[in-house]
Amino acid sequence: MTLRTSSRRRTRLAAVALGVSALMLGATACSSGGGAPSGSATLWGLTGTDEDTVLGPSLKEWNGANADGQVAATYFQNDAYKTKIRTAVGAGSAPTIIYSWAGGTLNSYVDAGKVADITSETADAKGKFLESVWNQGVIDDKVYAVPMNATTPIMFYYNKDVLKAAGVEVPTNFDEIVDAIPKLKAAGVAPFSLAGASKWPSLMWEEYLVDRVAGPEAFNKIMAGEADAWSDPGIIEANEKIQELVKAGAFVDGYASVTADSNADVALLYTGKAAMMLQGAWVMTTFKQQAAEFAEKGLGYTTFPAVTGGKGDPSNIVGNPSGYFSISASATKEQQASALKYLTEGVFDKGYIDRMVKAGQVPPITDIDAEIADAGGDFGTTVYDLTKNAKNFQMSWDQALPPAQATALLTNLDQLFNLQITPQEFSDNMNKTIGQ
């Protein structure tokens, strides 16, 4: 299913906010030229893995082979990039190729006329991408962004030895999760690790439980700006289940002070202090770096359990389908042409895919099962199969929603987990953010 655009009212407000931001911060916005040779397309990306193993080598090869279609890249740290690109897009001085996480941000760019419609130009490329990932760049049946990096769904991790010692099977439904809690507590371990201090890991529980209980339609109504959409009975039931888990002691003691940036939640799992954990596919790198033997022999992983009687398909997943590239509507025709050529011929060419797979990443590309199995082992194959077979891949809500709603969501979710508000109060509070 495609995550469609939100209501016109919401996106117009987002576009206005974008413009105001540009007026306030426009003096610091970068020119799309960025010091690049005249006529070159420019690209802004993120430092780290993308720069080192994906885009850096790709652009070096591309520019060496395309003297008339150069692409000059500049890289930023994550938080700095979010501010920089918002300012530049709003001021009409964005790079030719704009990186985003799609979702609410892309919707606001589209509604403000800041990115180009590339539907016809990408028609031939569409078939090589997994549909659930490709669709995140589609708004009102038009393509405004294409995938550019790994797919990273949220995974249900577990410590095989801890579960075995406690006589607990890997839960396949919510009732089995509840039944496992007293057995694991009696064995002296926390049922689940959770980095509650970071807030966003708690969102993973919200996303999966809402999907399993209410189905993806519940969140689609929120994205569409429907009045009182957060009051969907399935959302309230999902939040009742969250508080049921909290009251039963499902999460590690002191979870409200555990942080994800320090990988404290990951450490609780591999040291045997917790039995299970919800986290992104990206933490496999941390497991391999910090506990290589455990990652190879003691770590299990699957998708989130079903909820008996729920509307959501058990194949549905949540997380980060990919990062995305759009083309600035303010770029020159020459720059746009160079950018389109790179996006359709350079991004995810053979070298691009091979480097990602070698680095342990899972490209959102069709028919690479053998390559993933050879390089990524069981984990890579599991991630690839989950993505390939998902009936719905829900982008993380804090990326899908506009910034104001996403901030309110994390705040209210933190209060929900800490039993400071009821599920009904959560919905009432979030309903007030619709249209912001």
Q: Largest sheet at a glance?
A: 6 strands, mixed
Looking at how many chains there are and whether they match, the oligomeric state comes to single chain
Rounded mean pLDDT score: 89
- Count helical runs: 19
Helix content: 40-55%
Estimated radius of gyration: 22 Å
Query: Unreliable segments (pLDDT under 50, ≥5 consecutive)?
Result: 1-37
Identify the CATH homologous superfamily of the largest domain: Periplasmic binding protein-like II
CATH topology of the largest domain: D-Maltodextrin-Binding Protein, domain 2
| Strands, count | 13
Kindly give the count of domains: 2
Query: How much strand content do the residues show?
Result: 5-15%
State the CATH architecture of the largest domain: 3-Layer(aba) Sandwich
- Rounded to the nearest angstrom, the distance between the terminal CA atoms is 25 Å
Shape: globular
The SS-based structural class is alpha/beta
Could you name the CATH class of the largest domain?
Alpha Beta
Organism: Plantibacter flavus
Keywords: Signal
Protein name: Carbohydrate ABC transporter substrate-binding protein (CUT1 family)
InterPro entries: Bact_solute-bd_prot1, SBP
Account of the 3D structure:
The chain is of the alpha/beta class. It has 2 domains: 8-151 and 321-366, Periplasmic binding protein-like II (D-Maltodextrin-Binding Protein, domain 2), CATH 3.40.190.10; 154-318 and 398-431, 3-Layer(aba) Sandwich (D-Maltodextrin-Binding Protein, domain 2). Helix content is 49%, strand content 13%. It has helices at residues 8-25, 49-65, 78-91, 103-111, 131-134, 160-166, 174-186, 200-214, 217-223, 233-248, 264-270, 284-290, 292-298, 333-346, 350-358, 369-389, 397-400, 403-417, 423-431, and strands at 41-46, 71-76, 97-100, 138-139, 142-143, 146-147, 152-159, 190-193, 274-280, 299-302, 317-320, 324-327, 393-395. Strands 7, 8, 9, 10, 11 and 13 form a 6-stranded mixed β-sheet that branches. It has a 3-stranded antiparallel β-sheet with strand order 3-12-6, with helices on one face. The protein has a two-stranded parallel ribbon with strand order 1-2. A hairpin with a 2-residue loop joins strand 4 (138-139) and strand 5 (142-143). It is globular. Mean pLDDT is 89; it is low at 1-37.
